[in-house]
Design a protein that fits this description.
seven-stranded mixed β-sheet, six-stranded mixed β-sheet, single chain, 13 strands, 2 helices, mainly beta, 296 residues
Length: 296
């Protein structure tokens, strides 16, 4: 499978609304290699200080970024907003440069979002698919993407007992960037999923009637309250909480982020180990969704 390459790097400046301060980024052309052998064209933007240097063509690196997949993919490029970029050391113009780079370049995707429609059975007769709507602040505005998640049933029976998510519920998913669905939607082959994230637990609701309300969050750790939970019990409680969604608020909106490995254009200059990043966290009430893409 061909490795992704970042090319045509150039620096751009922008001024945010209601601000006079310029922000600089390096913008690169790249592609996301899917598990089915197809690729999705993409544009990667990395925060860059004023005196930063554009990386050479074919520079590979590990990328963590937020993502936006337009409905017209692949006619339109996917937009990647990097949170971190760590280039692999070496000279990209050398023939031996790619020998130290992993051959497996398929991105991993992790996301949190809402279900707009019921799941459907795919033409293979055993796989199920459903869409997840996610969104995030990408390229200075909030953008929504629709991701198709697939319970693969052709080569494995691991998902046979897993129910499909309910409409309007919120799920957290993790999997491989599989390719493109027939309608052009980006498809993810699931490796893990948590259903009904953000829903209250009915068992807990009934058992706490007539008793003092238990706080979801506390300013003190368990050890500070002299109530130490054994590690095994703590792990079990944490896992159950994430599956039932008993500690998360109801989700009405979503957000998106991505991580990947890429490469870039000319300038055979010595590069720093990583680009600095803009330390301005974005909060999207009431709870943002998350999509991450890992491209080795």
């Amino acid at each position: 499978m061909q490795s992704p390459a970042v090319s045509e790097g150039h620096r751009v400046s922008s001024v945010k609304p209601k601000s006079r301060t310029k922000t600089y980024h390096c913008v690169y052309t790249t592609s996301l290699e899917c598990d089915d052998g197809t690729s999705i064209p993409a544009e990667l933007r990395i925060y860059s200080p004023f005196n930063d240097v554009v990386m050479p063509d074919n520079t590979f690196g590990y990328v963590v970024a937020k993502a936006y997949f337009p409905a017209a993919v692949p006619e339109e490029k996917a937009l990647l907003e990097a949170s971190r970029f760590f280039p692999f050391p070496g000279d990209p113009s050398s023939g031996a440069y790619e020998e130290s780079i992993p051959d497996y370049v398929t991105p991993f995707v992790m996301g949190l979002g809402s279900i707009p429609a019921p799941a459907v059975t795919l033409p293979d007769g055993s796989s199920r698919a459903f869409c997840v709507v996610v969104a995030d602040y990408v390229r200075d505005s909030r953008k929504s993407s629709t991701i198709q998640c697939v319970f693969e049933g052709v080569y494995s029976s691991r998902w046979n007992s897993t129910p499909s998510p309910s409409v309007s519920s919120c799920v957290h998913f993790f999997g491989l960037l599989a390719g493109m669905a027939t309608d052009g939607t980006v498809s993810v082959s699931l490796e893990s999923i948590s259903l009904n994230v953000g829903r209250p637990d009915p068992v807990l609701s009934k058992s706490t009637q007539g008793t003092a309300k238990k706080r979801k969050l506390s300013a003190f750790a368990e050890s500070d309250r002299h109530s130490v939970v054994p590690p095994a019990q703590a792990m079990s409680s944490s896992t159950a909480g994430s599956l039932r969604g008993s500690t998360a608020p109801s989700v009405a909106s979503t957000s998106l982020s991505v991580s990947a490995v890429c490469s870039s254009p000319d300038l055979a200059a010595e590069l720093p180990l990583g680009h600095p990043t803009e330390d301005k966290p974005i909060l999207s009430p009431p709870w943002p969704a998350l999509l991450r893409l890992l491209v080795p």
